[in-house]
Write a structure and sequence with these properties.
Blueprint: H1 2-25, H2 33-49, E1 53-54, E2 58-59, E3 65-75, E4 78-94, H3 96-100, E5 110-116, E6 119-124, H4 131-135, E7 154-166, E8 177-189, E9 197-203
Parallel strand pairs: 5-7, 6-7
Antiparallel strand pairs: 1-3, 2-3, 3-4, 4-5, 4-6, 7-8, 8-9
Amino acid sequence: MLRELCHNLKCALVSLAIVAAAALLSGHQFGGLHKYLQTIAACELSRITDRQVQVGHVSGNLLTGIQAQDVAIAGPGGFDSGVVLAARSVRIHYNLIAVLMRQRSPAAAVKLVEVERPYARVVRDRRGRVNLVELFSKLKARKPVPPEKRFRGRIKLKAATLQYTGYLSSPVPGETMQLVLDNTDATIDFARLDWIRIRADTRVASGQLQQ
């Protein structure tokens, strides 16, 4: 499950970088490009997830990186049902020159993604399905991606909060396991093919570990 979640997180963030590259290549006027990026990033995330999406102010040097503020993806019933993923800011560092010169694919050109104060609500239902895995099911590759075209960078999470509800974690039918990881700093490294290296520092209430 953890590997799938990391893979889906990577795909969603890299998709935002590809959207930025496509917007620049489209020749849209620079005066309104940041606003244009804000609009198409929200539309792309909504298309991928089939959910209501919020993307706030977008800024940055478009050749080397962009930053989006107040990013959020709603629950199945829209924002009235809460948020499943959110972040105060998402900054994507990439080399657009390498993409323009056809030296790298858009995914391979992304070097680092920094996510400030991300929040995730993870739910595993009684059938073993995880909501975030289902959320990004459209991103599953239809055919293998060549190694040279894959994302090989890092994702850094700063002050993250993860709320987990597992309906299959309790031996008593109908009961759930509730777990909250707070103020988590983590680095997810995709540099090695077929390996995901994760370093994390988090806090969890001792009472939760007894569940």
